[in-house]
Structures are given as structure tokens and as C-alpha cells.
Amino acid sequence: MKYTVKNEMPGVRDSIDIRLWAALSRKSEGAVRIRLSNNIFGTVVYNQDTPIGIERIAGDSGCYFEIVDIASFREHQKKEGEA
Predict the structure, then answer these.
(1) pTM for this structure?
(2) d(CA 63, CA 3)
(3) DSSP the chain
(4) Would you list the domain boundaries of the chain?
(5) Number of CB atoms found within 10 A of residue 53's CB
(6) Class of domain 3-76
(7) For the chain, which terminus, N or C, has the lower number of CB atoms within 10 Å?
(8) What's the rounded Cα separation, in Å, for the pair 81 and 43?
(9) Would you write out the chain's pLDDT as a tens digit for each of its 83 residues?
């Protein structure tokens, strides 16, 4: 499989869908919009043109940072591919 990693914030719908497929808790669209607007950095992994994985970094923009929402569709977990 060919994967592409882009340094960008995931979209609201992609964030919700990928979190659910990765067995993480459901968040409302409103909550996801707030969460995404308060991030410092984000990454989206694509298979072809389809987003299949996300991660984001939240923090206070000064001293404290946390890597959160690391998730991917189950069929892509623990796989290697061309980067």
C-alpha cells in the first residue's frame, strides 16, 4: 500500500470517522470543531486520496504539549507501506 503523510489538521468528519473505526470514543461535531481549533499541530495519513489515520498535538503553545487522537482505520493498523 502507498501511504502519504501530510502535516495538516484532520477535517471534522474524518476525525470523527477515524476515531470510531479505531475504537475511540464518539465526539460530537461541535466538540470536534473546538478540539481541532485548539491544536498546535496535526498529521493526516492518506491511502491514495483517502484519509485513514490522524494525530494531533494539543498544548499551551509554551511549555506543555500532548500527542492525542492517534488513530487509524483498523485495516491499516500495524501495516507498513511505501511512504
Answers:
(1) 0.83
(2) 32
(3) -BEEEE-SPPPHHHHHHHHHHTTPPP--HHHHHHHHHTEEEEEEEEETTEEEEEEEEEE-SSS-EEEEEEEE-GGGTT---B-
(4) 3-76
(5) 22
(6) alpha beta
(7) C
(8) 17
(9) 788 999 999 999 999 999 998 888 999 999 999 989 888 999 999 999 999 999 999 988 889 999 988 999 888 887 766 55
Q: Name the grid cell of 27.
A: 465526539
CB 57 within 8 A of CB 67: yes
Pairing label, strands 39-47, 3-6: antiparallel
